[in-house]
Each structure stands twice: as C-alpha cells, then as structure tokens.
Amino acid sequence: MTPKDVYLIVYNLCCCVGWSTIFASAVLSLSKGIPQDGIKEALANVYATENLGDLLFYTQSAAVLEIVHAAVGMVRSPVIVTAMQVASRIWALLAVTYSPNAQTQWGAGVMILSWSLVEIFRYMFYAAALVTGDSTKKTPFPLFWLRYSLFAVLYPTGITGELTCFFQAAYDPVFGNFFISSEVAFWIYARILPFIYVFGSPFMIMNMAGNRKSAFRKRFAKPPPPPRGIAFPIDDEATGSRSSTPVNKEILAAAVGAVSSTKAEKIRKAKGYRFTYVKHLIGLVEEQCQSPDACLKIAQAGLDKAYDIFEFVSPDGSSVSVRQAMASKTSEKFFTGFIQGQGTEKADGMEVPYKGTTLKGQALKDQVKKWVDYGTIEPSAGEAIIGCVDNPNWCDLSDRYFVLLGAGSAMGPLLVLLSLGANVIAVDLDRPFIWERLIGLARKSTGTMTFPLKKEQSKLKTDAELFAEAGCNLFTHTPMIRDWLMDLYNGKDFTVGSYAYLNGALHVQVSLAMDAITKDLSEKRPGTSLAYLCTPTDLHLVPKEAWDASIQNFKEYNKKPLCIIMKLLSGGKLLKKNVLDPVAGEGGPFYLVNGVSVAQGPNYILAKRMQHWRAVIARSKGCIVSSNIAPATSTVSVTQNRTFAWAYEGMPYFKPYEIFAPETSNAVMSAILFADLNNPKSSGNPNNKLSNPNQLFSYGSFNGGNWRCAYEVDSIGETSVLIYFSRIAAPYLAVGGAAAVAVGAKVLGYF
C-alpha cells in the first residue's frame, strides 16, 4: 500500500466519521422533536442541534480537497465534474450557514439527512475499495448496494432540500447583507442556481444510474471461460490469473530495448503503468525517429516478443507459444462458402454519404477542398479522394479480392466494397446473426462474398443451416484461417484488411491473431497487400505544415476566455499543447502530435502499435501497405458511452475538429485505400522513399482535425462536454436570463 493510498483511506474514514456524527445528531434531534412538534417542525429544528452547524460546515468544506485530489491525479475523477459537484454543495452550505431563514425550515433538515446518508456510505465504500484493492467484487455487498442504490431516493430529497434553502436565503435580508447585497443574493439563489438545478439534476441522477448499472454488471459478471487459442500467459500459478499489464510492459520494453536498454529498464520498473504508459510510448517513438534501421529494429523486436510471450491454448488445456502454433499446418480444414450478389445497380464511381446527401463528382471534390482548407484532413488525404473521382477505374473492383478480418466491423469497408462489385473474403465470428446480416448484404449487392464454413455448402439445405455453419474465431482458429486463406484463389492478389476490434485486453489478442495471419500472407503469398485503419488517438509523425498549424491554433485559442478559465480551474491539467518538440534523427527533424487518450489504456495503444509495427516491416519487404488515420467517428460502440457522446458534440468548438458519421468515414477511408492500391506515388508503395518508415502514417491522414487542433485530445474532453451542455441550455438560459433581468429591475426599483 502506497502513502497515497494511506492518505486517501484516512481522508475517507475521517469524512465518514464526520457525516456519521452529523447523521446521529440529526436523528437524535428528530426523535425528540417529532413526538412534540410533528415531523415538519422537527425537520426545521435539525440545524439548531448543538454543534451540528459547525460540524456540517467543516465536514462538507473538506470535500474541496476532492477537487485537489482529481487535479493532481490522486484519483481518477474528472476535475471539472468534481468541481461542479462540490461547488453545488458549497452554495447550499453557504445558504444554510448564513441564512437564519434557511436554517429554520423543514428543507434544511431534509438536506442534512440526505447528504449525510449518501456520504456515510460513499466514503465508507471508497475506504473499503482502497483497502481491498477492488471497488466492485471485494467490497462487502451490503455496502456496495447502498453505495449504488441510495441515490435513487436521496438525490431527489437532497436536491429538494437544497432548493428550499436557496429560496429562503434569497429572500433573507440577513443573508443578503452577508452576500454582498440582497440583490446579488436574490439573483444567484432565486434565479441562477435553481435554473441550473432544473436542467442539471436529471443528468446527475441519470449518470449515477448508469454508474450503478455498470458496477452491478461488473460485480455479477460470469467468470470468463477457460482460455482457448491466443491468450495472455499465466502470471500467477496459484490463482491462474492472466494479467495484461506485465505483458504489455514487457513487449514495449523488448521493442525499445532493441536500441536502448536504459529506456527498456524504465518501462519494466514503471509504477502505475496504466497512467504513465504514454511517456514510455513517446520515448519509443523518439527512438524510432533516430534512423530507419532503429525504427524497423524496434518494430521487429516488439512483434517477436509478442509471438514468444503469448500462448496458444488447445482445447485440452495444453499450450505453446503463438510462434510455435503458427509454425505448423493444422489437420483441421475449413470448407469454403460462396455467395454471388444478385444486385443489378453497381455504384457509379466514388460516392460519399455526408450529412444527408451523397457527394460525388465535382460536389465531392468541392467538399474535400473545404475539409483540407479548414484543416480537418491533410492535403494528401484530399488528393487521394480526388484521385478516386478523377480515376473511376480505381473504383472498378470486379477483379479485386479483399480479405476482411472482422468483416462486420462498423469502421470496415464492407458496404463500400460490395457496392462497387468487389470480391470480399469475409472473416468474422461464427455467430448465426452475424452471418445472416453479412450474407444478406452480399446477396443484395453486385459483388461476391467468400467465407469459411464448417460443413460443405452443398450439404446445407436452408439459410438457417448456412448461417449456423459460417464463420470462425480469430483467437482459436488462427492457424486454420491462415491455411485456408493461403490456399484460396491461387493466382489472385489479396488485399488483407485488419478491422476486428474488441475492448480492453481482448483487443491485443485479436490484433495479434490478425497479425499472425497477415504476416504469413504478406511474406508467403505473392501479390498480397495490407490495409489498416489507424486511430487519431495515437502518437503520430505529422507533416511540418500540420505541426505549424497546431502551434498557430494553440496561440489563438489560448486567448479565448473559455480556454483561459478552464486552464485556471484545472491547474493546467486541461487544454495541453497538442504537439511535441521536434525530434532530431536521420532524415529529420520529425514532428509529432500526441493524440493519445490515456483513458483508452495501454492495451488499446499496444494493439494499434503492433499494427504499426507490421505495417512498416511489411512495407520494408516490398509489400504495398495502406495504413491511414481515420477520423473520430460516432459509431454505436462509442456513443453508447454518454461521456464520449457528449464530448463528441462539443469537440468541433476546437478548430478544425469534425466528428463524422460511420457511413462517411467508411466511404472516405475506402477511397484512400483505393488510391494507395492504384497510385504508384502513394506513400504506401514501397518504391517511394521515406525518410523514416513511420512516415507511412504521415500521409493520407483523414484525422478529423486531431493533428491541427490546438490541444491534446485527452485534455479537451471535459471542456467539450461543458460546451455541449451550454449549447443545449442556451435557449433556456436566454429565457431565464430575460426573466431574471426583469425581476432584478423590479427589485431595484427601475419599474
């Protein structure tokens, strides 16, 4: 247990004791007052209980430290959200402390009881979580239930009590004298704060309801089945646990260790890696910038370590390394399914759905120019899309074969490929509902779909049987999928796209599975090209023009009042400069943008980094590689997280951000892919020299404004959410403001 943990345990226990004392005093007061005066009068007398007022003031004021805890990174709470929650309590505390009218009405008692009951179990829960090291499964269930259930009753009662205190204080001349003037007190407590509560309270309650649902789901989640296929190694023989962090650190350390043993050792010794991994990633990329040889050595060493450290577990529980598993052919084989599309209308060249319209031809070129001029996409991405418009033959896919690993992915190009008559080789999970959708799409298209089957297609009499026997598992069937693809359509060139995505540590496993397949196809099957979608939330080498634009935006936005206020409130934790200092190296200097979102975690970054490593290695061996940055996209998996959805709505405030719909992202990224496959001048073509292999990701970037934004994406989330809610509230604030002005003028005697 660290000193920080000890401090937080002591803090939470002290607060718990304080609120318990307040609650006990309030209950004792009620027990004496209700028989004599009735419940309403007894509630009105709660605050007058001896020493309760002082204890309430100091205990609630201690919550200001929670803002400090969040600001300095002691806890994971968002700074702005924490500050807003504490501030609302402080406003109510001032009212009940300095307004006799607020103290002596029933709402004060309701507020005190509600606050104390919520806080007793909240602080007790936090302390227990720190002691047990687990906030979901190891805390006693009664405490867990109370923490995540009491809010349903106590939030509404507490808010009701706070509002009564606001209104009583607003009309109390004693409080008015304390609070600068009665007019100011009236405006704040009778107009502004109630208005904020009306619109803010439902969001607060719904957010807690969402937290409850998530916490209960985690606590009662079924234990995972025994590992099969690609799995993290066992790190504790006694428990059989397979932790991702040690593996994550070891792979990154092995990678950078190929050129710097000092940095490798720092990674291995890193504490709190979940929150410090970004600096080690920066160190790795800086080492890759030193020379092309260093870049490739690091990439190869990282992948080699992954192949050696990950296990491939057989159904009988025995295991070998992934390298060993992929070194031999399997005795089991897939059959091949085939669907010929019955569609008659093939898409006429490149089309991009955008905001309710379909852009093509000159209209598409005009919109691309707007995106480039605004800075939402890089010029090279614009040139690639326009190239597809000017060369319609690039979009004739009737003789092209695309292997889609994760065919049903929301960000994959399946729909675009089928609409252009491509031959799609679909690899996705063996789940009937998945194949009902995929095969249905193929039948309606002008393309074809080939897919793995567990039985011969001729023996399957119904669609239900076909859907049930289709598909495979990238984790458990990795060698079988590789063998099936190696023998499929001999003589045809494959473009193999890695599009499968899973959450958390599973993302690393599925990325390694896809890599094991693409490695052998790119090295052993002539004519194979690779395709990846890079995330904007990563560390990238960018063109100097993008770096300069970000610097200029940083200077401009730092003058905006909102940005100044947010920086001050967060103590510099928010709105950090997006770009890093230039890195010297052979062929440099190189310019970097830090798009990493720490909340995504080291597993997400490792999964994407392994794709980067394979991309530069494959290109160095003569393989065409299309690996371009996609924009932030409002996919269902993202927008289901309410905070992300709110942030997405507010992010366009920061020029030149734009959040794209999935159908737009699919189309534009497909266009850039087609350009990479057809344009001999593309950066993905190995015949074109790059100063550093990682510059592969500097071109064709449709990053949605991430690169040229003033601030790191990880530092604009809270501000974006605030902007979103301010926009929603703007019409109501205008009406409320007008009413407040009218009332204020009346109070001041102007009419």
UniProtKB/TrEMBL annotation:
Its recorded reaction(s) are: a very-long-chain (3R)-3-hydroxyacyl-CoA = a very-long-chain (2E)-enoyl-CoA + H2O
Annotated protein name in UniProt: very-long-chain (3R)-3-hydroxyacyl-CoA dehydratase
Any one GO molecular-function label of the UniProt entry: very-long-chain (3R)-3-hydroxyacyl-CoA dehydratase activity
Report keywords, A-Z: Fatty acid biosynthesis, Fatty acid metabolism, Lipid biosynthesis, Lipid metabolism, Lyase, Membrane, Transmembrane, Transmembrane helix
The EC number of this protein is 4.2.1.134
Subcellular location, principal:
membrane
What's its membrane topology? Answer: Multi-pass membrane protein
Q: Keyword Lyase, does the record have it?
A: yes
Is the keyword Membrane in the record?
yes
Subcellular location, in the record's words?
Answer: Membrane
Under the cellular component aspect of Gene Ontology, which terms does the record hold?
endoplasmic reticulum membrane
- State the organism of origin: Nitzschia inconspicua
Q: Where are the transmembrane segments?
A: 6-30, 110-133, 145-171, 186-209, 401-422
Its UniProt pathway annotation is:
Lipid metabolism; fatty acid biosynthesis
UniProt-listed GO biological process terms: fatty acid elongation; sphingolipid biosynthetic process; very long-chain fatty acid biosynthetic process
- Record InterPro entries: Tyr_Pase-like_PTPLA (IPR007482)
Give any Pfam family that matches: PTPLA
The UniProt entry's sequence similarity note says:
Belongs to the very long-chain fatty acids dehydratase HACD family.
